[in-house]
User: What shape does this take?
Amino acid sequence: MDLDLRKLRYFSAVARHEHFGRAAEQLHIAQPVLSRQIRALEQEMGCALLVRTTRSVRLTPAGRQLYEDAPGVLAAALAATRRTHGAARVDRLVVGFSPGLSVSPAIRAFTHAHPGVEIELLHLIWYEQADALRDGRADVAYLRRPFDGHGIRTIPVGSEPKVACLPATHALASRRRLTKADLDGEMILDAEARRTATVEEKLELVAAGRGIAMVPRSVARYYSRPDLVHRPVTDAVSYEICLAVLEGRHGQHLQDFLTAATQALAERRS
Assistant: This one.
């Protein structure tokens, strides 16, 4: 049996908080998704790890043992991943980026000064943004909050507004801008209402008339299509945009990239 490190990290959060809701908030994932991941881990382990009640959860003897062993397992896996990727990336950086965000200005600024360093790009799924840094697939990432920031160092480089994405035939589509009050009574397709794996899947549901999606403006523009419109929601909280790197990660190429990217991306969003 192979132990899934992501599920182990999720389990550790639930065990630490003794509550699925608080753990899900820390991990920035929907509670039903977290519950499914923990049940899948229990099936893989072949034993119950938690005793669930209506108000909280507690560890079984097997769960307590796994919780005690988890920090060492996760630390060892992370250290091995860092050493492996570090050895392979003498003159290479892997840069992750969230859907809708364009990291190309940072790439151009960095490669102009460091033409000998190879840059590899990694498109990140919304629910795995920071995971790519933790498991070593990416050296640095251009991300949009919220995400689980445990063990992650971030550098803010701007923000972007939240927009409502809706069918072109919707009654609100004729408005130039909206407020949250305008959306009262509408089905909002968030993680609690309906989990979607990709932006494309969510927009298909919107186009089919199954609800309205609140998305970053850059996502709405990147995935523009004639049967959908997006309208700014003037009183909605903006998304913070940042560069992110694993705490403790160093290296001259990485530091040089952060310096060049911070300036290039901040200037672009100003």
Summary: The longest helix spans residues 61-88. The first strand starts at residue 50 and ends at 52.
